[in-house]
Protein 1
Amino acid sequence: MPPKPKKPNDSNEENMNIASAFRAVNNANQNVPENTFVKVNYQLQQFDLANEYNPITSTFRPNNNGVYLVSGTISFAPNNTNVNYRVRIEIRVNGRPAIAIDNDFFGPINFGNVANVSTILKLRPRDQVEIFAQSSTAGIIAVNADGQASTHFEAARFPSPTK
């Protein structure tokens, strides 16, 4: 007798429908010393479908294997707007630097800049995903304010097997 066909909600197909997504923003300016990596704080969780984001540590830890889109954005304002400077933002997984990076160069301007990094990653349960930033000049990562400054961290899982 041939094997019984699986129903759409059996085993792996059921796991493919597990929702996983979060978005968080920062709610306070964060100092960035010159040429020093800082872990970016995203303390205000806007949503978290699977309880995978920790706003206290600004860390995303997926519950399931899968393919995820991860994105981090900062609004950076240099203390001295009359100098050329570089801003670097990176996604780290399990403490490994430079999983994905964006490195922007800005000339003297009288306003802040936005830097973003995003990538698609294959993650395992409990991987630790964080955003770090560095600048060649001291400044601040500006508090998220709609229409003025954009500082946010988010991830979402694509429909993909969890095994």
Note: Helices lie at 11-15.
Protein 2
Amino acid sequence: MGYMDIFKFSQEEIRDLIISTLAIALIFAWYGRGIPHLDSWFGILFLISIFTVGSGFILHELAHRTVARHFGALSEFKAWYEGLAIALVLKIILGFTFIAPGAVYIYKDYLTSKENGLISLAGPLTNILLAFVFYMLHIPLISDLGFNVNLYLAAFNMIPVYPLDGSKIISWNPLVWGIISIPLFLWVLGLFNINLF
């Protein structure tokens, strides 16, 4: 696989990335339950959600994809349309936010424990980096949402339970897992605070 193939997208993959990003942004911009009120405030929240939440989910998946391709694996993002439909139904009926937009599917005869660990680590590290990019922006609401959502995404994915990223990282290198996950878990529990403003 050539260097440029790492960044090559099929038309189906581009479609799935766009649909997943828009669906994620819609669900996060949609407060309460029932059908959302399509007013100017909803439009503003939708755009902010595309920028903050959508970027967090999609760039997390693309990081897995890129590192997997670096190791010679075939990898492609595929939307989980059933999961997106369930998310919309739960939002309408219960007002509950559930996100399962899809995943990167990786195909290779054999991945070493280290390769699998590094592929898995790429997603949470991307979210941590994005969180601090939003932190540095210092734009109310955008910075707050982008920072918090990305750190929560990183922390959730570092839980060492299969199929989450943490299970593959801890199998490869428990020290790396601890260095990344423990501060995240402390932050989620409110034992480690970072003030935005």
Note: Residues 121 and 169 are 6 Å apart (CA to CA).
Protein 3
Amino acid sequence: MSQELQPISPERAKEMYLNARKREVSQSTLDGYHYRLKHFIRWCNEVADIDNMNDLTGRKLQEFRTWRRDDGDLKPVTLEGNLDALRVFIRWCESIDAVLQGLHEKIIMPTLSKEDEQAESILPAEQAEAVLEYLRQYEYATRGHVILEILWHTGIRLGAFHSLDLGDYDSERETLEIRHRPETGTALKNGKEGERIVALSGTVCSAIDGYIEHNRPDTRDDYGREPLVTSRYGRLSRGNVRETVYKVTRPCYYGADCPRNRDPESCEGTHYNGYSKCPVNVSPHDIRRGSITEHLSKDVPEKVVSDRMNVGPDVLDKHYDKRSEEQKVEQRRGYLEGV
């Protein structure tokens, strides 16, 4: 008996899928699904001219795979993440008779080497210091400055930063309290287990104090809460924070030479709404990787880093510790001298 498919547009299928997963996963995970699947929707609309999911075939999925790899100039590990999200989505589409049964199995995943699995971008300490030096001198206590200070010093996730309220900051104790508040729009990736108090440095606190006193718009979010870092309209969205990070980590922004020798006048990454197209800036998660690596490089014990950044030891070692083997050897040598 042949399967009878029910017509549905790619946009509607994606909307239904995200709505179905809303109570199963955290908001940050849901945002990740949205980000990865939006490229598939764009391909359907702009390249493949597909307005009905029923028309998808294994050959068309292979065409998308090639297009996505080339369009985004993606590394194998990033392509794998995109295709894995698509496979889960297509398998769900099979359950509502939007595509043929078993179609998700026809998505060919890239074969990753051990190097590919760990080839993730990172904000190196020297670049972080260059960005912060510029912001401390020319944009002290601005929103962008405070965002970079907090993200680099604490290594917290974007979702944790997004959750911070004015009352979570204690200037006298020099701490930030990270809390899971899903009922008012700010869930943490690891739920209640992600709650903790994070110590700050005097440098970071001075920047936050200056921001609160001179530059913070006194606004509330849709739930009546007072966010720590705000816009004129309330709590900054994750997208706003990400865009700010893209903006200030462009080498041309903080006075460094462009590694790609691009002309700032013509580079698409220098224009508003185009900052993410800069080939050498970083995302908030790249800052997290860099911060964790820098903590480990300064001999902060792994258990302390694990607790501070809310990441398990195995994940810490595989995905966040970007020290070279030579660096690890020399650090171990320092502990063993005289033994």
Note: Strands lie at 169-170, 175-178, 196-199, 230-231, 234-235.
Protein 4
Amino acid sequence: MNKSILIVDDSASIRQMLGFTLRSAGYDVDEAVDGKDGLGKAQRKSYQLVFTDQNMPNMDGLSLIKSLRGLPNYRGTPILMLTTESTDAMKQQGKAAGATGWLVKPFDPPKLLEVTKKVLP
């Protein structure tokens, strides 16, 4: 079975680069333009991994993570923050919200795929 991954980011270029990297490795990828869009997609389809940005309109990444963790089928799903935010305080907030891990933009495609393989069941 193909592993389904949801990318949530308001930057079209980041969604495109991330999507290309993951699709090239054989993953099934859907994209959302912000947290609200991502939450709606996650409620309609089950994903094995979610990548989310922090700073987005309508719903930020931390709010999205908290909302996803409240859904029964996302309690144990890996959720990775992919953001320009890199302060320890922000990372602590991410961990408290339920983020599995943290990657800083710009991302390195081989490292991204390595992390993806580690967290996917």
Note: Helices lie at 12-24, 35-44, 61-69, 88-97, 109-119.
